[in-house]
C-alpha cells in the first residue's frame, strides 16, 4: 500500500518529502564515507563524474538489488547470529540505504538478529565488540556538559526522534550500563525500517549513571562509568537536565523512553508526559499492543470492551502498563473516570492479588482492591479467576508454565472464548504455550504470545475436523513506530491518552481474526510498515482533535492524510544526488549531520 500511495502523492513540497533529488555539497572520499550519501558500486556514471568518484570505485555500475544479493551472501556466511549482527552494524556505518533495503527484503529472517534476542547478546558484549561510538553518551558526573554534548548532534531543525535509556533494565538481561546505548540504536533502526522515520534525523542516547552489574564493574574492558548506580536527587537532576536540554536544542523532537528500571520508568513518564511529546515503550507500547490483541479477541468472542474484566498476572512495568491502557480505553468507551474503569482490572503478583494492604508503588495503587472485600478469601491466581470470572488473562510474570491446566480451564468455564495472553519473554519464561492453551480449552482460547510460536493443529473444527490456529505475537514493534511517526509528523506537543487509544483501535481494526477466528489476533512485523501508516493516521487525527498538533495544513480526508504520511516516510531507495555549492548548503548537504556510525572515517578500536 505504501509504495502505491507514494506514486500518487501530491505532497513533494514538504520538508520531509522523500521524492526527488537529494542536495549534496561534498565529493570524493568524503561522500563515500557519509552513510546517507554513499551508494558504493551503485553510483551512476554521471554521479561518478560530477562528484569526483572516478578511480575510487570499481568500473561496473550495479543496482541496489545486486548489492543486496551480495550483502546477503556476506551476511549468510557469518557463523552465528551475533556475528551477523556485527556485520549488519558495519554495513549501516557504510551505506544506510543498502542496510535498510537488506533488512526490508529479509525482515522475517533478520528481525531477531537486529533486535531481540540477538541484540541482547550484542549489548551484553558491548565493551568487547566496540569499534566505534554509536549515539550520544551522557555522564552523570558531568551534568554541566549535557547541553554541550547533546548540541554536537545538530541544529534545532535536525532531530525528529530521540530514544533514551539509562541501561538499567535492558530487554530480559537487566542492568547493562553504558551498553544500553545499543537498545536505543536498535529501537531507532526499527522506527526507520517499520515506520520510515528518517535515519539521519534520529538520536540514540544513553544516560550513564553507573551500573550495579558486578560482572561489568569487574571487567577491565568495560567502557561505562565504573561505579554503582547513582540514585536519588542527583539522578533526578540528571534526567531533568537531559529533558530540558533536549527540548531546548531540538524543540520538535519526540522522546522515546526505553528500558529504564522499574522504580524510575513510571515516575519519569508520569512527570513528563503532560509537558513534552514522549512515550515509554515498556509501559505504553506494551500496553497498546496488548490492548489491540484484547480488542480483536473481544470482537471474535462478540463481547464489548466496556464490559470486560481483566486479570493481569505480573504487576511490574509491563503489567501495569497494560492495565493503564485497558483502563484508559474502558474509561473512554464508557465515559467514566479512570478510577471507576480500574475496578474492572485485577493485578496479581507473586504474593497474590494487590490490595490496599499490599506494598504498592505509584503505578499499582489505582488498581489495588479493597482489602476488606477480600478478607478471608484466597488471593491466588486461581482463586481470583474463580471469584471475578474474567474475560481476559494476561501474563507478564516471567514465571514459566504458571498458567496451569486448572487455571486455564477455570477461565474457559466462565466464558465461551477466553482471551489468554502469556507475554513474558524470552520464550522459556512464557506462562503457557499455545498448544496447551488450545488443548485445555478444546480450541476455544484466543491466544497471543510475547514471542513467535508456530501454528497449532487440533480437532477443533465444527465437526471435530483438524483445524490449524495461527498464533499472534504481541510485538511492540507493530505499534510504537506508528505512534512515533504520527507524533513527529503532527508535531504534537504531547502524546495524549486519546492518541494512544486511537492507535490501538487502528491496529485492532487490521486484525486478521476479524475475518477468520483461526487467524492471528494481530498482524506481524512483516506488515508493520503498512500498519504504521494507519496507526500514524489515527494518531495524527487524534492530535488534531485534541488540539496538540502544531503542524499546519494537515489533510482532513483519510486517503489524502495517508498520502501525506507516506510521502514523508523514508524508504531505502537511491534518490538522485544533486550537486550544490557549499556556501548556503544545508548541514545535511555538507555531510555535517552526526548520523550513528558516521562520526569519523576510521575505525576506532
Structure, briefly:
The protein is of the alpha/beta class and 605 residues long. 41% of the residues lie in helices and 10% in strands.
Description:
This protein has 605 residues and is of the alpha/beta class. It has 3 domains: 99 residues, Hemocyanin, N-terminal domain (Up-down Bundle), CATH 1.20.1370.30; 152 residues, 3-Layer(aba) Sandwich (Rossmann fold); 194 residues, Rossmann fold. Helix content is 41%, strand content 10%. It has 24 helices and 16 strands. The strands form 4 sheets. It has a 7-stranded mixed beta sheet with strand order 9-8-7-10-11-12-15, sandwiched between helices. The chain has a 5-stranded parallel beta sheet with strand order 2-4-3-5-6, sandwiched between helices. Helix 19 links the parallel strand 10 and strand 11. The longest helix has 20 residues. The radius of gyration is 25 Å and the shape is globular. The protein starts with a helix and ends in a 26-residue tail after the last strand.
The number of E-state strands comes to 16
Instruction: Characterize the main sheet.
Output: 7 strands, mixed
The CATH architecture term of the largest domain is: 3-Layer(aba) Sandwich
Rg over alpha carbons: 25 Å
Number of domains: 3
Helix content: 40-55%
How many helices? The count is 24
Amino acid at each position: 500500500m505504501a509504495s502505491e500511495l507514494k506514486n500518487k502523492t501530491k505532497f513533494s513540497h514538504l520538508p520531509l518529502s522523500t521524492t526527488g533529488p537529494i542536495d549534496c555539497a561534498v565529493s570524493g572520499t568524503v561522500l563515500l564515507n557519509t552513510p546517507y550519501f554513499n551508494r558504493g558500486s551503485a553510483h551512476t556514471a554521471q554521479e561518478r563524474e560530477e562528484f569526483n568518484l572516478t578511480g575510487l570505485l570499481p568500473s561496473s555500475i550495479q543496482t541496489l538489488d545486486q548489492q543486496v544479493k551480495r550483502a546477503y551472501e556476506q551476511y549468510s556466511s557469518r557463523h552465528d547470529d551475533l556475528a551477523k549482527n556485527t556485520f549488519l552494524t558495519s554495513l549501516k556505518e557504510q551505506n544506510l540505504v543498502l542496510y535498510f533495503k537488506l533488512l526490508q527484503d529479509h525482515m522475517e529472517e533478520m528481525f531477531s538478529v537486529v533486535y531481540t534476542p540477538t541484540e541482547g547478546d550484542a549489548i551484553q558484549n558491548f565493551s568487547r565488540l566496540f569499534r566505534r561510538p554509536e549515539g550520544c553518551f551522557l555522564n552523570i558526573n558531568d551534568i554541566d556538559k549535557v547541553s554541550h554534548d547533546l548540541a554536537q548532534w545538530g541544529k534545532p531543525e535536525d532531530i525528529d526522534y530521540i530514544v533514551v535509556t539509562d541501561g538499567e533494565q535492558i530487554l530480559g538481561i537487566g542492568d547493562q550500563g553504558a551498553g544500553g546505548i545499543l537498545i536505543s540504536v536498535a529501537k531507532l533502526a526499527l522506527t526507520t525500517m517499520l515506520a520510515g522515520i528518517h535515519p539521519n534525523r534520529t538520536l540514540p542516547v544513553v544516560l550513564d549513571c553507573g551500573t550495579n552489574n558486578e560482572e561489568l564493574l569487574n571487567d577491565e574492558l568495560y567502557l561505562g562509568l565504573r561505579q554503582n548506580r547513582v540514585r536519588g536527587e542527583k539522578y533526578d537532576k540528571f534526567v531533568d537536565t537531559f529533558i530540558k536540554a533536549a527540548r531546548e536544542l531540538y524543540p520538535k523532537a519526540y522522546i522515546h523512553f526505553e528500558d529504564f528500571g522499574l522504580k524510575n520508568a513510571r515516575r519519569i513518564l508520569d512527570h513528563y508526559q503532560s509537558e513534552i511529546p514522549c512515550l515509554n515503550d515498556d509501559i505504553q507500547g506494551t500496553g497498546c499492543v496488548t490492548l489491540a490483541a484484547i480488542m480483536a479477541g473481544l470482537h471474535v468472542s462478540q463481547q464489548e470492551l466496556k464490559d470486560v474484566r481483566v486479570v493481569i498476572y505480573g504487576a511490574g512495568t509491563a503489567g501495569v502498563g497494560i492495565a493503564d491502557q485497558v483502563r484508559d480505553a474502558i474509561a473512554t468507551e464508557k465515559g467514566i473516570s479512570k478510577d471507576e474503569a480500574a475496578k474492572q482490572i485485577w493485578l496479581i503478583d507473586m504474593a497474590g492479588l494487590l490490595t490496599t494492604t499490599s506494598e504498592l508503588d505509584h503505578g499499582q495503587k489505582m488498581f489495588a482492591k479493597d482489602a476488606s472485600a477480600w478478607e478471608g478469601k484466597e488471593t491466588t491466581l486461581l482463586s481470583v479467576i474463580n471469584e471475578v470470572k474474567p474475560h481476559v488473562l494476561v501474563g507478564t510474570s516471567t514465571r514459566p508454565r504458571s498458567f496451569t491446566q486448572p487455571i486455564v480451564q477455570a477461565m474457559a468455564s466462565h466464558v465461551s472464548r477466553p482471551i489468554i495472553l502469556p507475554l513474558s519473554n524470552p520464550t522459556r519464561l512464557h506462562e503457557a504455550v499455545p498448544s496447551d492453551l488450545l488443548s485445555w480449552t478444546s480450541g476455544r482460547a484466543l491466544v497471543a504470545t510475547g514471542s513467535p510460536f508456530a501454528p497449532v493443529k487440533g480437532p477443533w473444527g465444527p465437526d471435530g475436523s483438524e483445524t490449524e490456529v495461527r498464533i499472534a505475537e504481541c510485538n511492540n514493534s507493530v505499534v510504537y513506530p506508528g505512534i512515533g511517526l504520527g507524533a513527529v509528523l503532527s508535531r504534537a506537543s504531547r502524546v495524549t491518552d486519546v492518541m494512544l487509544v486511537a492507535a490501538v483501535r487502528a491496529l485492532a481494526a487490521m486484525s486478521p481474526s476479524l475475518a477468520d477466528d483461526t487467524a492471528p489476533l494481530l498482524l506481524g512485523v512483516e506488515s508493520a510498515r503498512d500498519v504504521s501508516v494507519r496507526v500514524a493516521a489515527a494518531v495524527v487525527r487524534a492530535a488534531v482533535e485534541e488540539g496538540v498538533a502544531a503542524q499546519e495544513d494537515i489533510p482532513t480526508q483519510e486517503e489524502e492524510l495517508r498520502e501525506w504520511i507516506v510521502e514523508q516516510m523514508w524508504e531505502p531507495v537511491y534518490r538522485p544526488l544533486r550537486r550544490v555549492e557549499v556556501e548556503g548548503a544545508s548541514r545535511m548537504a555538507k555531510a555535517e549531520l552526526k548520523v550513528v556510525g558516521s562520526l569519523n572515517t576510521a575505525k576506532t578500536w
